[in-house]
């Protein structure tokens, strides 16, 4: 029905109309940062009036305008408090990962489908989040730690990060910086393939039950997270559920395939 003259016109569609849709939205790459020689953080600027509701730990789905059907998911390495942009951190792996790391540059346009996913931090005061990551699987945990640190939360958060050598640690300085500001955050790294004479003073060897147990003081209030390629996530799940007898409900996983 048309409004009669003098009647208020219906309001323009709310910005949420854009952001609840699964339609891709074009975003400009504002900047790129090489975290490691094979790992790049890409910052995507939200278009005007884009105002999504989303949660730390979710992923966005990205494609290039020339191949719109070739879409891939990337966990947000930024957090829900970061407004105005998304950050993703991509390893040079597979077709899309290689293209993103080799090609994505400032000013490029990418198609982005709004954040989705249930790999969400439980920020209850009495919880202890044990976040197990291998290689690039650390990306969502940067978001977890960033939100907890910015909000001054008392939730304990321990990142157990397995890498081959010290040259493979993504976000090392950033996690150390957050640790200084957040007494409830611990960033613990283990290196699996260091030379014997390497000066690294931290832990060496694979992730194992003993190392995980050392971190946990109250198993009933621990929430375990594992993120990354399938072998790492399955390995972590086996350790936590089968070897530590933690109920499956206390473990959340994000498998990258
Ligand atoms: C929810 C979700 C979140 C993701 N978040 C990230 C992220 O934050 N950063 C990121 O780099 N990738 C992430 N990925 C993986 C990403 O979507 C792509 O699969 C990856 O970039 C490889 O591109 P491709 O699929 O075109 O490779 P393809 O040419 O199709 O080959 C895929 C192969 O690469 C392996 N693979 C995919 N990603 C990785 C990886 N990072 N490390 C080791 N092996 C891998 C797969 O097991 C498979 O064998 C995520 C995937 C999912 C489902």
Would you kindly provide a written description of the structure presented here, covering whatever features stand out?
There is one protein chain. This protein has 257 residues and is α/β, with parallel strands linked by helices. The protein folds into 2 domains: 101 residues, Beta Barrel (Elongation Factor Tu (Ef-tu), domain 3); 128 residues, Nucleotide-binding domain of ferredoxin-NADP reductase (FNR) module (Rossmann fold, 3-Layer(aba) Sandwich), CATH 3.40.50.80. Helices cover 22% and strands 31% of the residues. It is built from 6 helices and 12 strands. The strands form 2 sheets. It has a 6-stranded antiparallel β-sheet with strand order 4-3-6-1-2-5, covered by helices on one side. It has a 6-stranded parallel β-sheet with strand order 10-9-8-7-11-12, with helices on both faces. A hairpin with a 2-residue loop joins strand 1 and strand 2. The longest helix is centred in the last third of the chain and has 14 residues. The radius of gyration is 20 Å and the shape is globular. The N terminus is likely disordered. Bound molecules: flavin-adenine dinucleotide. Flavin-adenine dinucleotide binds next to strand 4, strand 5 and helix 2.
